[in-house]
Specification:
With 128 residues, the chain is of the alpha+beta class. It is built from two helices and four strands; from the N terminus they run ββαββα. Strands 1-2-4-3 form a four-stranded antiparallel sheet, covered by helices on one side. The radius of gyration is 16 Å and the shape is elongated. The protein starts with a strand and ends with a helix. Residues 29-65 have low confidence and may be disordered.
């Protein structure tokens, strides 16, 4: 799994983040879709998928696949995100989930921190 954590501090102090885990496979050449973003974009055609599994249309947490699988995936992603937020100190007072995507290869959460950015945050989380 490849982990990506992107922070964005707005001029008014709003702290946004995007956290994703991407499954890295050795056979990416057969995939027509890359990392897609946005609500409902996790839909994949029936090609190459497990027929009857219900996993081919799982996107934005609203898929009709196995709810046990989806809740386990979301739980895993939340655990990894909580760990990242704790180690970086980015959202000290918690966060609000703005959007999420759960696909075969991409797990992603976009969120907003509960607290406003401090001067230290602006220095520590500067990105080019």
């Amino acid at each position: 799994m490849a982990e990506v954590f992107v922070t964005d501090i707005k001029s008014g102090g709003l702290k946004i983040f995007n956290y994703s885990l991407t499954r890295v496979t050795q056979q990416n050449s057969g995939s027509k879709r890359g990392a897609s973003k946005g609500k409902g974009s996790g839909k994949h055609g029936g090609r190459g998928g497990k027929k009857g599994s219900g996993h081919s249309s799982m996107g934005s947490g609203a898929g009709r696949g196995s709810s046990g699988d989806e809740s386990g995936i979301k739980s895993y992603l939340n655990e990894m995100l909580e760990s990242k937020l704790k180690t970086t100190g980015y959202c000290r007072d918690g966060y609000i989930e703005l959007d999420s995507t759960f696909g075969r290869r991409l797990l992603e959460i976009r969120g907003e921190c509960e607290e406003a950015a401090t001067e230290e945050d602006r220095i520590k989380f500067v990105h080019n």
